[in-house]
Amino acid sequence: MIAKKITGGLLAATLALGASGTLIIPANANEVGTSVKVSCSVPTDRDAGISTVDVSYPHGGTWQYGTTLWGGCGDVYSNFLHNSRRHHSSVLNADNVYAYSGVKEAGIWASARTYAVCGKVDQAFYGFDA
């Protein structure tokens, strides 16, 4: 997995509107994305390992995205699988830290993850590659 800090000038892409109405800037023009808001509350022992997960089936694939909480804010993640097309996943947190799965062949999960920013909106994406 590749993770890097992005400055505003490096993030040239098309704009998309997330399900929450939040403006999303995908890392490249062939990505589709959504926003994920992370709570800042610290879970109790009973709540350790809480995660939010959304699953959808875009373009015949399976996309899992959300957050995990492990004694703090946890991670934001994006996992995408497509059985007939090359694809990838990525995440961008509120600190502009970007993580990319790399291009995966059909039938292989693409997984990207980075730390979530408490109380802020983090973003998850998937995309296709030629």
TrEMBL record:
Pfam families the UniProt entry points to: Lactococcin_972
InterPro entries listed in its UniProt record: Lactococcin_972 (IPR006540)
Keywords, ordered alphabetically: Signal
Signal peptide segment: 1-29
Record keyword Endoplasmic reticulum present: no
Domain of life assignment: Bacteria
Residue ranges of the TM segments: none
Annotated NCBIfam families: lactococcin_972
Protein name, UniProt field: Lactococcin 972 family bacteriocin
Species assigned in the record: Bifidobacterium longum
